[in-house]
Sequence to fold (574 residues):
Amino acid sequence: MSAFGQVVRNEARLVRRQPTNMIGSIGLPVVLMIIFGELPSFHQPVPGYGGLILFDTYVPIIMVLGLTMLTLLGLPGPLVSYRELGILRRLSTTPVPPSWLLAAQVVVQLCIALAGLAIVNIASVAAFGAPVPKSPGGLALSCLLAIGGLFALGLLIAALAPTANSVNVIGRLALIPLLFFAGLWLPRALMPAVLLDISNYTPLGAAVEAIQGSVQTGFPPATPLLVLAGYTLVFAFLARRFFRWE
Amino acid sequence: MATLESPAAVSLQEAPAAAGRRPAVEVAHLRKTYGTLVAVDDVSFTVAEGEIFGILGPNGAGKTTAIECAIGLRRPDAGTIRLLGLDPHADPDQVHEIVGVQLQSGALPAKLRVGEILEEYRSFYRDPADMAELLDVLGLVAKRGDYYRSLSGGQRQRLSIALALIGRPRIAVLDEMTTGLDPQARRDTWELIEQIRDRGVTIVLVTHFMEEAERLCDRVALIDHGRVVALDTPARLATQARGGKTVRFLPSAPFEDRLLTGLPEVSWVEREGQHVVVTGTGELVNAVILALHAAGVTARDVQLDSSNLEDAFVKLTGKNLHTEGVLA
Fold:
């Protein structure tokens, strides 16, 4: 097996052996989906949403929730602890650069992210009667851009957090406003205009809007896609600028 | 290089590395500063191939910074570095293939198994060591399937040394490899290092244990305040530190070392090319000359060095070599 393959393999083993982050990013969304799917109140139509019931509007929120848990905690956590433990430094004395470890983490976490998104999306349609996405291509693009923006944010946290413990603090603090504007507590359909405007320009608000649009109407509007692409570029630039290997 | 007005200056010049071997490590006038802090002021040394070379000094002396510059982890402000002729900053890829490094206090992921870690690092090199053999040499065979977090301090240290050796390096750099180990584990590690050297690997050890340097190293550079304050064989450094003397001479005819090692005044006998260097105490010169005369050998070109390293060290640094070296 190639050296990069070996690095990915061990990173995958570590994720499997410390499944906390998989539970947060796949288990939690699945549990929420089942709870919301069983609650009668979630089967009421949402006014002004073309006959969609509340559950349907929550599917995109649950999808981005899992993705956010993964990228705010699961992605930066190992990277920061590798820096703390001197593993990145050790790698820089070998023929393999420490950036391979970062790349391997991204590969492994990307697999988890895609699995989580696919499970929630497919199960919500198959088991709870959510609508089949009108634009599968738009949905895929929306998900990829959401992954881009959030992974870049995760790497920025990895760049800025001095210790693995501080990743948890930063991640959890960032999680609350991000999820609020995704509509976790107050769905975007029910948000006052001011909050909705703000939500449209937050990473998770834009992600939910793009996913919701792909499911409900067809190819999503340009604005949320551009917002997500912009966050990807800005966070990636900042992460690269501030990342320390030791 | 520090200069001294006392006779100690003679011994502070670098003793010649074993004759006929080419240098594995050449460091000349290395300097590294962090803002106003001078971590490494001016460090030069040469390590011959197959040598175990020690870098000794109190904590904060600049040992680790010097070594991190030498292996290419840090860019020095000034100075030249060659590892088997290669510049680590110009040819990092080639240098990483031939230089194995064990850094101070480097941990590994808790939930990876010993074998998995070794397999991963093994894949980084073009011509890696045989894993089973390496596990055997390092006494880790039974631990192959164990998680890193279940290893004892000594086992972790040995795994760390294994990772430094898995690429079959020509040079191994080991920083504080026995710090935190119990005495038995420390002695086991020393034996291991000697075995590795016997396979032709050049070893650079960073340590602050005088005993470790004395036991293992062919030569030792003593660093303080970012400078090499002494560079010699540990025997001579130690003897000098205890107030011993050194006689260097050219014998008129060959003789066996035990002619002199049996004398109560003599601590060590070494050969430097044609010259013989005898280290000891008391009336050393008389005892040596008489013993040689009795065997029909004449000593020519006799040089006596009665300098005291500890005096020199105190004079240079204001510190006591032994207490700083051991307790730091």
About this structure: The first helix of chain A runs from residue 3 to 17.
